[in-house]
Design brief:
The chain is an all-alpha fold and 115 residues long. Helix content is 77%, strand content 0%. It has four helices and no strands. Helix 2 (30-49) crosses helix 3 and helix 2 (30-49) crosses helix 4. This is VanZ family protein. The chain crosses the membrane at residues 36-64, 85-103.
Length: 115
Amino acid sequence: MRKLMFLTCCAVLAYGLFRPEPPPDLFESSDKFLHLLAFAGLSLISRFAFPSVPGWLLWSLLYSQAPLLEWLQHTLQPTREFSQLDILANLCGVSIALVLWTLQSLVRKRFFSPA
């Protein structure tokens, strides 16, 4: 089930990143907000789907793919604009996921592990 969630998330992210036209502007900077949400979601689901992968490796891969996917988006879809702010939003999404995952791990250890 975890792997299915991961694959679904990857498919949704790929659709959003590699479609020819950008998403509609729902509000000012909604594109950046969607990048942030997408990468936070992908990162959390990745950690959940692959619990045996060492954290340093998983988070390094997520941080490196954040700018890579923005570059790849522009390369594969020339109608889409390359944006350093999108890269920043992607990286912030990964960072938020890392903080959330670390916090939940600390809470679980503190309150739910046997003394």
